Amino acid sequence: MSKYVAAIYDRVLADATNKTTKGLFNVSDWLRINNNTGVVEVLVEALLGISIPNTSLTPPVNETWVTISPLNSLITNIENIRLASGLPAITGLVELKDDWIAGSSADAPDYTDVNDWERVIDLIFTYIPKSMDYKIHCGVCTVGEPRFWQNRFIRNQWVQDSATPVRRIRMNVGTCGTGLMRQNGFRRY
Fold first, then answer.
1. Domain residue spans in the chain?
2. Close Cβ partners of 182 (under 8 Å, ≥ 6 residues apart)
């Protein structure tokens, strides 16, 4: 897989009307969007520890026509990444239409749709590493492991230490025969 390529999402109506290189959807645009989708998918999967369903696409060449099915699959791949990333809509992410229909009388994607595809990929690429600072990670408690392994928590920098001993909620496993405070996972520290 290659590196992330700078996205182009500043197309305007004049580009489409004057048939500039930005106004026409070319094989190079397809390859850039498909490549960036793959890069962002690997990034999201690695950072969130999840698997994102995708459709493997055959790259087009100048002699082939892109039909509606691979185009919808490309957009569905982007939409799956958007949904899996969990980023809020306030970042600028929009839902993408991925059910285009073939035919001369059917609606077709225009430059604004292509801008949205590339913008969504670029926003996820930009914000998903930043969002990791705000995730709270906690380990899985398992019976029979030592206590230090059961309580493996990653402390975030934005959680301030308390000046006085307080009771804070900690993830733990309730044990039969112990007090209510211990079963609820409260520890004094």
1. 13-134, 137-189
2. 172, 174, 175
